[in-house]
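Weekly puzzle thread! Below is a chain. First person to post its structure in token form gets bragging rights.
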Amino acid sequence: MNWGGCSTACIEQGDFSGLDDLYTEKPEVVDGLAEVFGSWITRFKFDGFRIDTARHVDKDFYNRWIPQILAAAKSAGIDDFEIFGETWITEPIEQSKYQRVWGLPNQLDFPLFDVIARYAGGTQGAGGVMLRLEDDDYSRMSDGRAPTPGTFIGNHDTGRTAMMIKAQSGAEGDELLARVNLGHSLLYLLRGAPVIYYGDEFGMIGIGGDKEARHDLFATQVSAWQTQERVGSAPIGAGSSFDVKNHPVGQHLRELAALRKQWPVLWRGATLPRDRNDGAMAISRFDMADQREYVTIFNNSTESRLLEFATSTPSATFTAVWGGVESTNSDADGFVSVEVPPLSAAILRAEAKFPLAKQPPVVSAAPDDFSELWLLSAETSESPQEVSFLIDNGTGWRRVAVDDSFPYRAFVDPNALPTGSTSRIVAVSRFADGTLVPSGIATFTNTK
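Winning reply:
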């Protein structure tokens, strides 16, 4: 496999670093792999699989293999078996095809990894993070699940979180610790499932990826590792990391985990990027069950920043429930002002429920400007809601996707529709009280 210029066929069929490629085009190979890995689930009751090098099979493999794996999990009494793949692609639209077309249920979020490391390091503003969150719409599927990719900053291939952030910022000492904690705050306070690489909780930095990022946690005999710099503490020397108590990075991670447990909106709530100002940003999260708005706030600057933005909850107190910001009040139009301390993160919680403006959506279709897909859009009220998009191309109505935040969108692969065929589309808004409000029916012709 030529990593410098590998074609699609090379990626799917090439020998990976000397490992022979499996003939996954053959049904007996697929069935054999399903039998082997299904038996692991039966015997050991795994909760899920992380699929390494997930794009190095033929594109039909997952649509044949995964149903057998999920059936094995269900037979073993595991109804919510998780599968996510390692597809090392930092372009979100390109990565999304492995879910839309290939059939992977979930992926590691390499596009967000790329921008979070830069943001926490201070070399990229908030716009990159906010745009990446908006790109989630490309990964919304007909099952209605909100995107919950595995989010991370460092790993065994790229190098550790602290090393990635230090490479961006050149920071040392207290500033590096603050930036590492900011990076982890992004992982835990944004959508997705945070993945922390072992040793990060003890401040390990490392000097590279692969073998340079596989330090011992026990007392090490590798002299270079004994003297390597750590963030938040001195080099380990001849000691064991397991003897390190209350490391500041580990403490911060425990605090963030407790926040996600206390406020489920942080892991299940809809996401709406609000405002950014020179390194600071505000992102609303919506708890539809409680009809409550939360705002997560971040600042990667070494100076305080002022954010002024609209919320969905007018004339309400927004209480600071975590972090260094002050509580604030929204005006009659929902606008708030927040002073954000340097290198920090915070959470605000509205003390009033957001209002429900139950306006019928208006649905339309157009070619997407950034891909080969058809873009379905719904214009509706600013009230938080979930919008389901459905299509009928003559074979009955089927759901395309569910979008839970503005802009409300879904994407249709033109290859799934006959060229020249006309399809009907409709959008249905679901509000926090369960009310369903449909649009009228629109049509479009597949000219692609």
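Puzzle host: Confirmed. Bonus trivia for everyone else. The radius of gyration is 23 Å.
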